[in-house]
Specification:
- α5 (about 110-115) links the parallel β2 and β3.
- α1 (about 10-25) packs across α11, α3 packs parallel to α9 (about 275-285) and α4 (about 80-90) packs across α5.
- The protein has two domains: about 1-35 and about 285-355 and about 380-385, Aspartate Aminotransferase, domain 1; about 40-285, Aspartate Aminotransferase, domain 2, CATH 3.40.640.
- The two termini are about 15 Å apart.
- It is built from twelve helices and 16 strands.
- It has about 400 residues and is of the alpha/beta class.
- The mean pLDDT is about 95.
- The strands form four sheets. It has a seven-stranded mixed β-sheet, with helices on both faces. A four-stranded antiparallel β-sheet has the order 12-14-16-15. A three-stranded antiparallel β-sheet has the order 9-8-13, with no helix packed on it.
- Bound molecules: pyridoxal-5'-phosphate.
- Pyridoxal-5'-phosphate binds near residues 82, 107, 108, 198 and 232.
Length: about 400
């Protein structure tokens, strides 16, 4: 493949050509498209023929077991989507209305929405340049300045609101610095809940992301490494927590052949069997996808080598799924040129999310300094990442 040492407009043209060569097409190249080349139709048809298309069925149980085996999680609980999984995980971490949750300003809005809908408030902390995820040093600095601790845990010394959880997000599949975050969580008596929506297939020091925190959420939205159409999964660190989590996501119904008794105000967050069928077929090919995605990332890495555009690589301590490839442009102007020229040429690229504290719903939330987040917001562009 051609190696690019060019800047500005020539870079944009070379990138368009490079991407079209990779995908062997002159048609539109999406950012991330799902692929269904295995048993997807067969399993989905089976659910239709069995009539078990809804919230009970063998594929839901199998999909949970497949994810447990793949990730090493003690218990996986399938949900309707990743936002519902995160809402459930936060509820199980004892986050309640009025509580504070420390998370990233640089994330997809669902991270904040999940806690907002339960009446909790996000507090925005900067990301580290090594992982693009929650920075343990920034987290510790914020808590040292604004928090105190008593027998009930940490609280904000001005508002007296309780800090309950820390929610790092493994941005684009790159694992955050979990050991260092755990040290801060333990010191301040906070529960670590991983937003692993983007990181199925990513490993932190040999352990699957989402299995280090007390709880975690995965997403199987159509743009993720594997999809169930829409779907999510809560990963629980212990089997006991798993049983309680399954109970709360299934209307908290006490098992009985015909009586209805619900011992809590549960959620109806069950993943339908129809979606789980798709998930089971996708899990049969995930290892193949991971190899293809790593090969694609290596090609991009070589392409950008020696230029002013910095390809985002996995952190040294981790093995990333390279879900969404990204490049950091030298300036905001270069970012604008890259976005406009590639999209004009039928190659889909996208800027990173607007930082959460700039959105109307979250502009009043407290935050620490966000220097790295702001730097990335100005420069980072996602580039086509479907496995080929
Ligand atoms: C970081 C992050 N968190 C949460 C979600 C929510 O997942 P879902 O779209 O399945 O609700 C997503 C993906 O969409 C995500 O990227």
């Amino acid at each position: 493949m051609e190696k690019c040492k060019l800047l500005g407009r020539s870079m944009n043209k070379s990138l368009v050509k490079f991407v079209k060569d990779i995908y062997q097409t002159n048609e539109f190249v999406p950012l991330h498209a799902p692929a269904f080349n295995g048993n997807e139709k067969k399993y989905v048809n089976e659910t239709i023929e069995s009539t078990f298309v809804s919230s009970v069925g063998k594929f839901v149980d199998k999909f949970e077991i497949d994810i447990e085996k793949f990730t090493g999680s003690a218990k996986a609980v399938a949900t309707v989507n990743g936002t519902a999984a995160l809402h459930t995980a936060l509820h199980m971490a004892n986050v309640r209305a009025g509580d504070l949750v420390l998370t990233q300003a640089l994330t997809f809005v669902a991270t904040c929405n999940a806690l907002h809908h339960m009446g909790a408030e996000p507090v925005f902390i900067d990301v580290s340049m090594a992982s693009l995820g929650l920075c343990p040093v920034a987290l510790e600095a914020y808590l040292d300045e604004y928090a105190l601790i008593d027998e009930l845990g940490a609280y904000n010394k001005l508002t007296k609101q309780r800090f309950k959880a820390v929610v790092p997000m493994h941005t684009f599949g790159h694992p955050v610095e979990l050991d260092e975050l755990l040290v801060v969580c333990n010191k301040w008596n906070l529960t670590l809940v991983e937003d692993a929506a983007e990181s199925l297939g990513s490993f932190y020091k040999g352990k699957h992301t989402g299995t280090i925190g007390e709880l975690a959420a995965l997403s199987f939205n159509g743009n993720k490494i594997i999809t169930t159409g829409g779907g999510g999964m809560v990963l629980c660190r212990t089997p006991e927590l798993g049983v309680k989590t399954k109970h709360i996501t299934t209307t908290a119904k006490v098992p009985h052949p015909y009586e209805f008794f619900h011992d809590d105000a549960g959620f109806n967050y069950r993943m339908p069997n129809l979606n789980a069928a798709l998930g089971c077929a996708q899990m049969e090919v995930i290892k193949e996808y991971l190899v293809l995605k790593r090969e694609l990332a290596t090609k991009y890495e070589h392409f950008f080598e020696g230029s002013d555009f910095k390809f985002v690589k996995e952190p040294s301590y981790a093995k990333s799924n390279y879900w969404l490839n990204a490049v950091i442009c030298p300036t905001f102007e270069e970012r604008e040129n890259l976005l406009s020229e590639t999209n004009k040429s039928n190659v889909m690229t996208r800027p990173i999310w607007t930082l959460m504290h700039r959105l109307p719903s979250y502009s009043a939330c407290d935050r620490g300094p966000l220097t790295n987040s702001e730097y990335l917001e100005q420069r980072l562009v996602n580039i086509p990442s479907s496995p080929v």
